[in-house]
Amino acid sequence: MDRPAPDPRKMLDVWMEWERGDTTPGQVLKDLKIAGLRELLEAQAGAES
Q: Is 32 contained in some domain?
């Protein structure tokens, strides 16, 4: 199964919803995972090594 590329804009939107108190922490983690947070972090960590 191919996963879409990480979407930093979507991740920021999810984060901002949480900061406003519109979303629970569990939902935030779920949405960040769906948006590709792991892949984004792995790519960033690899670029810094």
A: yes
